[in-house]
Structure formats: C-alpha cells, structure tokens
Amino acid sequence: MAFSHENLRVYQKAIAFVAWTHALIETLPRGFSAKDQLERASTSVALNLAEGNAKFSHRDRGRFWQIAHGSAVECAACLDVLVARKAIESQLADAGKGKLEEIVRMILALLDGLGQRFREDESEYGAAFDPLACTCHEVGLAAGRMMEEEDGRGWEGQERHAPR
Q: What confidence tens digit (pLDDT) does each residue in 68-112 have?
C-alpha cells in the first residue's frame, strides 16, 4: 500500500534532494553547523510535505506545506553558508539550489491551490514599503495585522472579539 504523499511529485523530488544532500554531507568535515542544519532542513522538507498531505483541513495542510517551503529556503541558505566558508564550490551549491528552486515552485503551487500562499502587496504597505529597511518589530506588527484580518486572531494568536 502506498501512502498518498508518495504520489506527490514534489515529495519525490524532496526525497531525491535528501539523497543529494546526504552524499554532499558525507564529504564535509565535522564542525560545520551549516552541515548539520542542511541535514535537518532537507529532511524537514520531505517530512512536512508528507505530514501536511495527511491533514484534512486546508488550513492545517497549508501550515505544514508552508513549513516545508521555509525549510527548502533554509537549505538554500545553508548551501550559501557552505560556499562562504569555502566548504563547497559555488557550482555545487548552484546545482543544489536548482533542485530547490523546482521544489519551492511546486510547494508554492500547492499553497496557491489551497489559497494559503502569503503575498506581499503594495496595497498592504503602500508603494514606498521596503521590507528590508524595516525593523523586526515593524514587520511583526504588519504580520500581526494581516493575521488578525485573515482569521480574527492577533499576533499572539488570541481570539479577538468585536466590541459589544
């Protein structure tokens, strides 16, 4: 009996990426935190795709797939760190990031199908908004406002009730 997540092409590609990273990780010396993080993050992509696919509600499914997306991006950052520390060549990192780009596109398509993809829009922040120039507090406040509008919960995840 095959589990339903095994039929997802993105899951199959995530498993192939785990195998690719394993071969890479085996060549790296001990002591690189990015090495360990790459192993955990690559595994997280596949595990969260599988767990999300097993969820019944769109909201739960989307949450796990969003985590998988974040882990895939984290893998790309780990590859960048390994290049910066001269542990791997940039061509090898580029090959891995090419695999990750395809996985990320596929995850985003799954999230689009659920209506769960976060999009930054000029109308949310105004044309002059530059997220890279904002403080963490400002970005957190903006995210909290969006969450509250989306599901009636505030930044802390507490129910918000309309005044009586």
A: 999 999 999 999 999 999 999 999 999 999 999 999 999 999 999
Which of 61, 141, 44 lies closest to 100, judged by CA? 44
For residues 100 and 155, state if they share a domain. no
Instruction: Copy the structure tokens of residue 122.
Output: 């000029």
Q: Where are the alpha helices (DSSP H) in 28-162?
A: 33-53, 58-84, 90-114, 122-125, 136-151
- Global pTM reads 0.71
Paired strand residues for 153: 159
Distance set, CA 125 to CA 122, 136, 138, 157 (Å): 5, 15, 11, 22
Residue 118 and residue 109 in contact, taking contact as beta carbons nearer than 8 Å? no
User: Rounded to whole angstroms, how far apart are CA atoms 121 and 44?
Assistant: 29
Whether 106 and 164 share a structural domain: no
28 shares its domain with 108:
yes
Domain that holds residue 148: 121-164
Q: How many domains does the chain have?
A: 2
